[in-house]
Amino acid sequence: MGGFTGQTNFSVSQGVRMMFYVLHPNETSYKTIEEVPDYVDKATVYFTMMLVMEMILSWAWKGRPLRINDGLTSLSAGVMSRLPDVFFRGVEVTTYIYVWHHYRMAELPWDSPWTWWLTFIGVDFAYYWFHRMAHEVNIIWAGHQTHHSSEDYNLTTALRQSFLQKYFSWMFYWPMALFIPPSVFAVHLQFNLLYQFWIHTEVYNGLKHCNIQHGLFSTGESTRHSLKMLM
After folding, report:
1. Range of the domain at 184
2. Which one, out of 29, 128, 208, 225, has a CA that is 20 to 30 A from the CA of 219?
3. What is the rounded CA–CA span in Å between residue 73 and residue 176?
4. Residue 6 domain-assigned?
5. Which of the two residues, 69 and 129, has the higher pLDDT score?
6. In whole numbers, what is the pLDDT of the chain averaged over residues?
C-alpha cells in the first residue's frame, strides 16, 4: 500500500490465509509502523492465481470467458488508484499517525492479542460506516461510484477502485488513533482490503450474498467470517 517497508518471509500457507484474513495475532504483530510489511504488494501473486482460477471456472461453469475489455478497465483503474501510494504513504495511515502522535488518550500494548482483535473489529466497523456513507452521501459516492461502474461481477471488479476514494475514508478511522498503535492499525487496514478481493465473484455459489451486497453496502462480513474460521 506504499510506505510499508517491513520484511517478512511468508510460507504458502500464510500467503493463502492472508487473503482470507485468518492469520493469527502472533504472526502479524509489530512494534513500529516501519516493521509492518506491505501485505498488499506481497499478495500480487495470489491476486494473479485467483484471477486465473476464476477465468477457468467461469469458462467451465458458464461456458464463456470473462470479458477482457471490462477486466482491463478494472485493472487499469486499480493501477491508477495505487499510483500515489508508490511515492507516498497512504492518506489513511498518514492521518492516523498524525492523530496518534498529537491526540492519543491512551496507548494499548501493540503485542497484546486483545489489541489485535479490537483493531480487527474496529477497522471492519469503520469500513462498514465508510462504505455505507459512500452509498448515501453524494460527495463520497462521487469517489466510490467507479467501483460500481462495471457491468460484470468478478475478481477484477474488486480492483476497480477510484483514485479519490481513499481521500474520504481516512476520517472514519480517526477514533481508533486515540488509543490503538499505528502498527496494529496498518496491519488490519491491509487485511481488510485483501479480504474485499475474493468476495467479488459469482463463481462460488456460496457468495451470492456478496453480489447482493455489491448493490447495497458492506455488512461487516469479514468480521463474522474470520471469527468463524479462527474458532
Report:
1. 12-16+32-230
2. 29
3. 35
4. no
5. 129
6. 81
